Amino acid sequence: MYDFAADSADCARAVEARLSDLLTEPALSGPGPAAGRLVAAMRHGSLEGGKRLRPLLVRQAAAIFSVPPAAALQAGLAVEMVHCYSLVHDDLPAMDDDDLRRGRPTVHKAFDEATAILAGDGLLTHAFALLAHPATHPDPAVRIALVAELAAGSGAGGMAGGQMRDIEGETGGFSEDDIASMQAMKTGALIRAAVRMGALLGGAEPRPLSALTAYAEAAGRAYQLADDILDVTATSDAMGKATGKDAGMGKQTFVARVGVEAARQALTAVVTEAVGYLRTFGPRADGLRATARYFASREN
Amino acid sequence: MYDFAADSADCARAVEARLSDLLTEPALSGPGPAAGRLVAAMRHGSLEGGKRLRPLLVRQAAAIFSVPPAAALQAGLAVEMVHCYSLVHDDLPAMDDDDLRRGRPTVHKAFDEATAILAGDGLLTHAFALLAHPATHPDPAVRIALVAELAAGSGAGGMAGGQMRDIEGETGGFSEDDIASMQAMKTGALIRAAVRMGALLGGAEPRPLSALTAYAEAAGRAYQLADDILDVTATSDAMGKATGKDAGMGKQTFVARVGVEAARQALTAVVTEAVGYLRTFGPRADGLRATARYFASREN
């Protein structure tokens, strides 16, 4: 019987411990010694906090192909670093201008803007360094497939492109389809990459890979929908960041259009859809099933 | 007889043409369509300008191992995208706050700050996507070695770390050794990566790889020294950017300490040192020899 609370806590502990080992001056040295202030800012932007859902998805997708959790960790760390870099940059004054993240000052508040820009750049760069390392997977062909997957999920046709569309959408004129497409890129693309990277670690054939991709896309929609509902219903304390912000900035979310109750029904439907794509995988996919359901029930 | 002017012009043309093909909405699509404004900003930050010295170094190092120029192009484009991303971010108001780059408005001036941050992120991300593609090299083990090399050269112990130290150094207290070490990272690390990536494309053994690394480190010092001398002696028109800026901001350059004439002598010495490391390679290294000499003679 799969235990979501235990598995996700175990994953979060492993991510925290390994990130802390990897984000040190010796581990980040290159042709020269790593800059201390930059390492400190990269740590601030990625340690102590976060639910580490993306590494969990990598682990859970890999588990379908009998890849043990330890062998899925490093690829998960790379996805998490990309997620953290995106938060550091999104929080900047020129972007969402947030002072608080996970209940602590954002990187540009704790350090300064220049350092936060460089810390994001450093986390993004190091994600690819991690994937290139043999500890990620012994086969270089698998590692290069992971690099391609992560780059596609986070670039101009993925997360960064979604963030660009989100900024453009603030000026209004977005249809419901535009919102869905923007969110699929901004949040969904990295969730999709995480699931696919887990499958690639396990040597997934094209058919299971495409079922898992469909799962990931539905799970990503569920995640975003839950986030939008929480932005309306949760308190700032529970979320560890400012809430009510999307509505306050006039952001065009689906929830704003249809109301909280209809959004909750849509969330249940999309979780059911996500779980449906896992039909052929049996109990090894219980982790991914539990995570999709967790997306619908989370309170922060 | 190697013709530097012809080879560098040919390389610059090839880089410009291929970058223009690669930085389009269809080519940058991922799980979703690439965001048009982001693609436009990525193009603004990387097309029409630049001497394309890093792709030239990749090509010239690869030539030592008989790799034809066309087969060295894609790896060169990846290094160039990383170079361009660093310029886009360095020009931001929170960093060097430059309005002009290569005689045109910088990305945050032509677009806005948020778009410039995302454009830099997009270029960095896409550099790794390019390296992951089979067009870079048929062997995935070589491609993953290139990813590792580029990430090391541009991360916290490379270019980004150097930029962090440079910002810290503006507050003073840097010794000559500190300046040299900062510059080796900020400018030198990516030049080093370019040369090593060319060698890796050619399957270089450890001994030639380390001779080429020594060349690249000396050539990087020459490049930076020439840049610092030009900052003092050249006009803003010739450089296509603001000059006299380092001295104006109290940046601690070697030139400021020893004077222009002594810096010119040091430049000649370091070029001689760089060329010395190429002794064993014969005429196939004429390209790298010419580039090191060009560094000492360039006027913009």
UniProtKB/TrEMBL annotation, chains A, B:
It comes from the Bacteria. It holds the Pfam family polyprenyl_synt. It comes from Devosia oryzisoli. InterPro entries: Isoprenoid_synthase_dom_sf, Polyprenyl_synt, Polyprenyl_synt_CS, Prenyl_diphosphate_synthase. One of its GO terms (cellular component) is cytoplasm. Belongs to the FPP/GGPP synthase family. Keywords: Isoprene biosynthesis, Magnesium, Metal-binding, Transferase. The keyword ATP-binding does not apply. This is Probable farnesyl diphosphate synthase. GO terms for biological process: terpenoid biosynthetic process. Gene3D superfamilies: Farnesyl Diphosphate Synthase. Its cofactor is Mg(2+). The lineage of its organism: Bacteria, Pseudomonadati, Pseudomonadota, Alphaproteobacteria, Hyphomicrobiales. GO terms for molecular function: metal ion binding; prenyltransferase activity.
